[in-house]
Design goal:
This protein has about 500 residues and is an all-alpha fold. Among the domains are: about 40 residues, Single alpha-helices involved in coiled-coils or other helix-helix interfaces (Up-down Bundle); about 90 residues, Orthogonal Bundle (Serum Albumin, Chain A, Domain 1), CATH 1.10.246.120; about 160 residues, Glutathione S-transferase Yfyf (Class Pi), Chain A, domain 2; about 30 residues. About 70% of the residues lie in helices and about 0% in strands. It contains 19 helices and no strands. Helix 7 runs antiparallel to helix 8, helix 12 packs across helix 14 and helix 13 crosses helix 14. The longest helix has about 50 residues. The protein is elongated and about 190 Å long. Its main location: cytoplasm. It is found in: Cytoplasm; Early endosome; Recycling endosome. GO terms for molecular function: DNA binding; guanyl-nucleotide exchange factor activity; small GTPase binding; zinc ion binding.
């Protein structure tokens, strides 16, 4: 300040001391490069402007996402009334989605967070821009919630955040490790953080458990795209095998599994639908704890359905068959991948204790039962089981005499037609089978005759002798053979 005053006085310029102070009035001197603010006030103003820009970004992104979902929902609801073909509808929906995604990308490019957004989008491997945008938004949201959470822990929270950042940096350099080795690293990290909170910072057990849930949420949201169903494993192959198996078992009825649930009761039917929805929703979650929560909600709906049907609390013997039926009816996507992901990266204390671990164990047992399900498991004969698996017949067909009086004539006629088509299909398959058998018999008979003829020809070969000279007639003039007597001459005797 003295140097500035001296220079100004030498130049004959009067300098007002108030003009050199910070514009915010904190008492410190400002800097023209910082628009008249001091360094501290400039950081505060910049932070406020950045938070405001982030909030505006979130609001605009949520509004665009909402508009996209509303446009898609309206197009789905009016699909039956429109005369457009399916290909035109798909083209229209793709164009609409591309336009909105382009708008969001332009918006975030112009924002103060463009660099971070662009880096996260380039790291992702999925081809869809909407998936990139959704993953980036969710990652930012989880990071923000995690920072707000650890602030309540003060110094232990700072230590937790430092350990998490160090773990993420370490895992970014270990992408070439096998999924089992990455799982061991994650489990060791959970254990080390929990021990650190308990021994060093003396955090109560209930707060340690809550902190570990937030740590798992933060870590696995950032690691999800690298460790869920990786290409180095056969998880995807197992998913397809289980999905194909469940589709082949679509004919299994609740009576075959001894399921104590009556879907004719409206309230029970709603519980079954909610259970199926929860088990399917598991695939949309990114955190192992959230996936376990979906399994738990599904299991509770199952227990409620059994309780309403039987008018008494459900038992474990009733729960497992019903869970198997729900899995068969829902056919959850990427079931094996989700189970493996939870097993590898979930907090071990949650899997080994509590209701979440119990329900998860039952789900694993249900999947193993479905993979090994046979005729004996359903109390069926092997012949009936094979017919049901091949689609020749179905146990769900109803005869006309078994319909209740309330069933409309259209349903009865439809069931009769399906029964007739099934009989015709069986008859056609039987005729085709007999025709193929007859064709095979004809080919075998022709081959047998040909072989017999060849054997006879080989055993008795055909020999062609030279043509012998013809004998001369007795009455002819035989000049070449003098040994023959002369021809007889008729003689006349007188009476």
């Amino acid at each position: 300040r003295r140097k500035m005053n001296l220079k100004s006085e030498r130049r004959g310029i009067h300098v007002d001391q108030s003009e050199l102070l910070c514009k915010k009035g904190c008492g410190y001197y400002g800097n023209p490069a910082w628009q008249g603010f001091c360094s501290k006030c400039w950081r505060e103003e910049y932070h406020k402007a950045r938070q405001k820009q982030i909030q505006e970004d979130w609001e605009l992104a949520e509004r665009l996402q909402r508009e996209e979902e509303e446009a898609y929902a309206s197009s789905q609801s009016t699909q039956g009334a429109q005369s457009l073909t399916f290909s035109k509808f798909e083209e229209k929906k793709t164009n609409e989605k591309t336009r909105k995604v382009t708008t969001v990308k332009k918006f975030f490019t112009a924002s103060s967070r463009a660099g971070a957004k662009k880096a996260e989008i380039q790291e992702a491997k999925a081809p869809s821009p909407s998936i990139h945008r959704q993953a980036s938004i969710e990652t930012d949201r989880v990071s923000k919630e995690f920072i707000e959470f650890i602030r309540t822990y003060q110094k232990p929270g700072q230590d937790i955040y430092k350990q998490c950042k160090l773990f993420l940096d370490t895992m970014s350099h270990k992408r070439d490790l096998s999924i089992e080795e990455q799982s061991e690293c994650a489990q060791d990290f959970y254990q080390n953080v929990a021990d650190r909170l308990q021994t060093r910072w003396k955090v109560p057990p209930e707060k340690v458990e809550k902190a570990m849930d937030e740590v798992e949420k933060y870590i696995m949201t950032r690691q999800y795209k690298y460790v869920f169903c990786p290409e180095t494993t056969d998880d995807e192959k197992k998913d397809l095998a289980v999905q194909k198996r469940i589709r082949a078992l679509h004919w299994v009825t609740p009576q075959m599994l001894c399921v104590p649930v009556s879907e004719e009761i409206p309230e029970v039917s709603d519980m079954v639908v909610k259970a199926i929805t929860d088990i399917i929703e598991m695939d949309s979650k990114r955190v192992p704890r959230d996936k376990l929560a979906c399994i738990t909600k599904c299991s509770k709906h199952i227990f409620n359905a059994i309780k309403i049907t039987k008018n008494e609390p459900a038992s474990a013997d009733d729960f497992l068959p019903t869970l198997i039926y729900i899995v068969l009816k829902g056919n959850p996507p990427r079931l094996q991948s989700n189970i493996q992901y939870i097993t590898r990266f979930c907090n071990p204390s949650r899997l080994m204790t509590g209701e979440d671990g119990y329900y998860f164990t039952n789900l694993c047992c249900a999947v193993a039962f479905i993979e090994k399900l046979d005729a004996q498991s359903l109390n069926l004969s092997q012949e009936d089981f094979d017919r049901f698996m091949t689609g020749q017949t179905s146990p769900k067909k109803q005869e006309s005499d078994s319909f209740s009086p309330d069933v409309c004539l259209g349903v009865k006629q439809m069931c009769k037609s399906l029964d007739l088509l099934s009989q015709l299909n069986e008859r056609q398959e039987r005729i085709v089978s007999e025709a193929k058998k007859l064709e095979k018999d004809l080919i075998d008979w022709t081959d047998g005759i040909t072989k017999e003829v060849e054997d006879i020809v080989e055993k008795y070969p055909l020999e062609i002798k030279p043509k012998s000279q013809a004998l001369a007639a007795i009455d002819s003039e035989n000049v070449e053979n003098d040994k023959l007597p002369p021809p007889l001459q008729p003689q006349v005797y007188a009476g």
